[in-house]
């Protein structure tokens, strides 16, 4: 296919949790009320079924080892093989849930067995090769990680294409995983070659969320690669819009915390806000994936996969707000404040870079940062073990410094423009009404987010208080002076 001057198709990504609800997806995103031509001019990029990538790599939250972690660990011996067999069994059970007819189920099972046993043979050969001193396993682990991860994406894409064919849709399985492909291409070349002979007006491509390419997506994005695939497919094919289907709406707060009746769907915002949400772990879209869409002028729509009639939230770079206001209140628990204090740093350069090097070396995620004449504080998300290693490195590099570590929560009020004088005092007043004393407040010049640091025990109460004060009861009519008086 070739790009057109007036694009008409969309590129749509379905996440793993949503993919697990296959029968519901048929009635909403995949088919729904569509008939004939309305089924086409779409490209579907799919993630692995929920939990499958955790089993193949490691659990995203708990860190429980999967096949990859066991293979990478020299102490695990051959236990990775048993773990791979369990993944295979899990995949076959998923096939049985989806396909009730013998023919399609057997085709799906053959596909899974071929991929699983192909990977098993490859890993056995690699382990034997690396048992000799001339070959180091560490040099191949990224490739192993990519190969294992691609198994889940390939199964879900293959199954979805097969299922749609059973329902009369002219679907096509588009495998970007590089399975048994001896050539190496850039990501754009991989996509261009895959879509070269596809007529979007007559076919519905079901694309693997993982793409094997020269850039090595997992090296940069790790498990956020499917959003990169989405964005580059949209750009290369010249899409009119990119769509991400989630199992929930992009709302003003977590309804489980502030209440279903209190939250509202955001509706529209820009990529700047999307970046802030990603920093808070919301992951509307990976910031680097958003860059491609921004530069190409392609809007992104975030929809609830199971509320198909709702338009969702559209994200565009040119969407400015009509008046300053908070659009979302979100946050993170388990944030570590790493406070580095050294009176020798006054007027001296180099401390910042040393701290950043240590954080980068131990792969610790920086959420925010503050500094003054002799103190630099980073607010971090990561394992305590990794952060302790950072602390140890810095103590060795700066023996005269005092380094403190504290666990807290960070809550952020986010919007396209918070350039309204009453927002900060209203936030403080809302917290005071609930008896919450903030440990710190960051109100930066760009006015896209207001960050409040609180004790972990105050996390949910802070979310509710800020949402009520800055969104539910916000009028925008209070003057700066009256808001300040309310605080007093």
UniProtKB/TrEMBL annotation:
Q: What is its EC number?
A: 2.7.2.4
On whether Isomerase is a keyword of this UniProt record, the answer is no
- Give me the reactions it catalyses: L-aspartate + ATP = 4-phospho-L-aspartate + ADP
Query: Under the cellular component aspect of Gene Ontology, which terms does the record hold?
Result: cytosol
Name the enzyme group at the top EC level.
Answer: transferase
Q: Which CDD domains match?
A: ACT_AK-Ectoine_1
Q: In its UniProt record, which GO terms are filed under biological process?
A: homoserine biosynthetic process; lysine biosynthetic process via diaminopimelate
Which Gene3D superfamilies does the UniProt record give?
Acetylglutamate kinase-like, VC0802-like
Q: Which UniProt keywords apply?
A: ATP-binding, Kinase, Nucleotide-binding, Transferase
Q: Show the GO MF annotations.
A: aspartate kinase activity; ATP binding
On whether NADP is a keyword of this UniProt record, the answer is no
Report the residue ranges that make up the Aspartate/glutamate/uridylate kinase domain in this protein. Answer: 10-304
Which family would the database say this protein is a member of?
Belongs to the aspartokinase family.
Q: Could you tell me what this protein is called?
A: aspartate kinase
